[in-house]
Specification:
Length: 510
Amino acid sequence: MNSSISKGRYLKDIVPFLNLDAQWQQTMVTGLAVDSRKVRAGDCFIAYRGDHADGRAFLLSAENAGASCALIDFDGDVDNQQGPAELAIPVVKVKGLRQHLGQIASAFYQAPSEMLSLCAVTGTNGKTSVSQLIAQGLENAGHRCGVIGTLGSGFPGQVLNETGNTTPGVVENNRLLKEMLDAGAEYAVMEASSHGLVQGRLDGLNVAFGVITNISRDHLDYHGSMEAYREAKALLAKNARLRGLVLNADDNQVLSMASMASPSTQVLTFSTKSATRADVCAEAIQFHQAGIDIKLTCQGASGEIKSPMVGDFNASNLLAAATTLVAMGVSLDRVCAGLSTVAAVPGRMQKVPSVSNSPLVIVDFAHTPDALEKALLAARRHCVGKLWCVFGCGGDRDAGKRPLMAAMASQFADEIVLTADNPRSEKLSDIFSTMVKGIPDEKAYVLIEDRRQAVMHAVRNATSEDVVVVAGKGHETYQDMMGVKYPHSDMACAEQALSMRAGPAMEGNP
C-alpha cells in the first residue's frame, strides 16, 4: 500500500514523539508505504510484523525501490535509533510502532479527519447499506460526502475505488480522507468492521459520529467468543471524541452500549416499532412491490420516507440513516426527502431487472445466520408463491455458522439450493457436509456445486409468483477458489438466467 502527497514532509514532523538524531530530522518524506512492493521514490517505509509477513524483512527491497527512510518496529529498549548498518537510508527504531501509526499518518496528511465530520458505522449487518444511505442522504441535502467501505471508496454516484478491506488500514484511511477533503467533502462515512476496530485501523481519527446497527454471530473464528466480538463493537461506543452515537433500540445488546458513551456524547436511538421509546421511531411501515413507505416521528416532529428498497431490515437501515442525519443537524424534512430518492445499494436486497412472466429475483450479501434469516423474511413479504434460497458458506472461515445458516434456510425458505460461495482453500465436500447438519431430515434440498448453474436451476424452476433469493456474495465480482479469484457476479448470473427463461429454451441445464 502506498500513500503519497504532492508536497513532502520532514521526517521530524511526522514522528514528533521521537527525539530524532539531528542528521535525520530533515529527511524529506513524500509518501507513506506499509507494503515494500508498493514503495515509491521518497516514501517512508513503515515496517512491522503483520498477520502474514514481517515488513522488517523487506527493508532492502524498500531501499532499492527508492524509499528515503524507514521506520521499524522495535520490541526492546531503544538505546540506539539506527537500524541495520548495511542500509544507506535512515532506518529509525520505534518502540510500539503499530500504536503510533495513526499519529504518523495524521501528521503526514495534516489531520484530514479534523477538517471534516467523520462518521463510522459498525454492526454485524447493515454497515454497507447504512453507510451508503447516510452518504447519499447528505449529498441529497447539499453536503459533499465521501464513503469508505466494502464497496470501495469515493463519492455516491461515482465508480468507487477498491479498498481491499471493509475498513482499510489507518495510513490508507488518512490518505483517502485527505483526497476527499481536497475534493470538497464536508463529511465522510466509513464502515468500521470488528477486525478494523480491534486492529486500530481507526486510531488517531477524529470520529465525530458513531452508528451501531445490530449484533449477532459473526467472525468468531477471529474473536473467539461472542463476548469478545461485542467488546470489539463497543470500542466505537466508548470513543470519547464522539459528538453523536446512534443506537438500534430494537437490539438490546446494542442499546446497552448507551451507558458506555462519554457524558459529552449525544446518544440517539431508533426503532421500527411504534411502541418502543426511541428518538426516531416508525409509526407505520408499509411493504409493497415498489418498496417501503415509513411514517416516522422524531422528537415530536413527523415525516415519511418512500423508498424503493425492500425488506424489514432495510426499514431499520433507513431509520438508522435518518437518525444519523438528524444527529448531524439535517432537518427532518430534508432527511425524508433525501432518503426517498436514494439508489439501491449494490448486492443488498437488490432486485434483478425482471422480464415478463418471471419470478422476482433478489441478490443479497447475507452471509451470517442472522442476515440470511432477515433476507428471507424480507423477501417473504413480497412473495405470493414459493420462496427459493440459493446460498453457500465461505471456506476457511467460521465453520460453526454453516449449519446455523442451513437451519435458517430450512425454516424460512420453501426451496433450498446449496452451492459454492467462496470455498477458498477448503474442499466443497467438507463445507457441504457441515452445512447439511443444519437441515432437518424431512426437508428437501438440491446441491449444485457450480454457483451459476445453481442460480439457473432456481430461476428456471420458479414460477412467476415465486421469489428467488441468491444470498452470500452480493456485490462481489469474483469467486475465490484455491487461491484464484475467478470472475463471477450473482447479479449477472441472475440477469442471464431471467433472459434465458424468457427465450425459447434455457441452456446449460445442470
